[in-house]
Amino acid sequence: MHVDFVGTCSGTEPVAGYHHVAVAIGHAGGLYWLDTGENCAYAGRISGLDLLATRAIFLTHTHMDHIGGLPHLLWTLRKLEGIAPEGMKRLQGKEVRIYTPVLQAWEGIRMMLQHTEGNFSTSFAVRGAEYNEGVIHDADGFRVTALGNTHLELQQNRFISYSLRVEAGGRTLVYSGDVRCIEEVNPLLKDADLVLMETGHHKVDDICRYFSQCRNSFGRFGLVHHGREVLADPSGALRRIRNQLGQDSFIATDGMALDV
Ligand SMILES: [Zn+2]
Q1: Residue 12: which region, alpha, beta or left (left: phi > 0; alpha: psi -120 to 50)?
Q2: Is the predicted pLDDT of residue 108 greater than 90, yes or no?
Q3: pLDDT, tens only, 177-193
Q4: Which pTM was predicted?
Q5: Which of 16, 62, 118, 146 has its CA 20 to 30 Å from the CA of residue 178?
Q6: Is residue 257 within 8 Å of 49, Cβ to Cβ?
Q7: For position 103, what pLDDT does the model report?
Q8: 69 C-alpha vs ligand 1 centroid, how far in Å?
Q9: How far does residue 228's CA lie from ligand 1's centre (Å)?
């Protein structure tokens, strides 16, 4: 898996140098998105991501810092298809699936897009899929398992916020999404090669304390979805996670990329 940190910020007001969270994973010629914060299409395109390889988009929950860039990402896919020479329309006949815990949020975005250019008719299908806990996607060697968390109140006994475990090419990545309690992500950790933990709702010291207790169950550790503590003092936060969770721990920044 190749991981691009397209945006790394939590739901703050605009902060110079950081955009809301979006993680793009390249695997076997496909591109998969974990959340789509504002600016993800622009930053992804400008940094050289192959947006037309997009196969699926996984939204952990429907807060603005996680979905704000979705309509523009889909609009950009249509634009890129539209300017491609005939015979080079790479999404033609394919489907881009949007996995969302709340289908109505997707339906609102779909309606908005329909009132943009050309009735938003596309050469490719875009389909929303509401998901619950369990394996939500398993195709082309890319598998995603969702675990509900209580970042948001349950709706009609359903989780509407999730953490995700991604398995591809024999490697495993865990993405916390937003969680109310740090330990909610625990059932996903075992044997993960990379754990990405949000800092928008938790103190760095609490994160270090919790993950150092279960340090043996996973590989590399990184912080994403930065809250104000990390934004105010990234080097201090980096020093603490490296001391407690390993020297290869990192704080993701916009534009950073790594292989898992
Ligand atoms: Zn968030």
Answers
A1: beta
A2: yes
A3: 999 999 999 999 999 99
A4: 0.97
A5: 16
A6: no
A7: 98
A8: 13
A9: 12
pLDDT at 214 over 90: yes
What is the fold, at CATH topology level, of the domain defined by 2-259?
Metallo-beta-lactamase; Chain A (3.60.15)
Cα 9 to averaged position of ligand 1 atoms, centre (Å): 8
Ligand 1: distance of its center to the CA of 47 in Å? 23
The pLDDT, as a whole number, for residue 86 is 86
pLDDT > 90 in the chain, percent = 98
Given a contact cutoff of 8 angstroms between Cβ atoms, the answer to whether 19 and 58 are in contact is no
Q: Are 227 and 204 in contact (CB under 8 A)?
A: no
Q: What average pLDDT is seen over the chain?
A: 97
C-alpha torsion angle, residues 138, 58, 179, 194 (rounded to 10):
60
Q: From ligand 1's centre to the CA of 82, what distance in Å?
A: 32
Sheet bearing 134-139, strands edge to edge: 134-139, 142-148, 162-168, 171-175, 192-198, 218-224, 250-251
- Please state the rounded mean pLDDT for residues 17-43: 98
Residue linked to tokens 């930053």: 43
Burial 165-187 (b: 16+ CB within 10 A, else e): bbbbeeebbbbbbbbeebebbbe
- Reference 214, options 185, 247, 178; nearest CA is 185
Task: Compute the distance from residue 11 Cα to the ligand 1 centre, in Å.
Answer: 5
Please choose, from the candidates 121, 26, 128, 27, the residue with its C-alpha nearest in 3D space to the C-alpha of residue 77. 121
Confidence of residue 13 (pLDDT cuts 50, 70, 90): very high
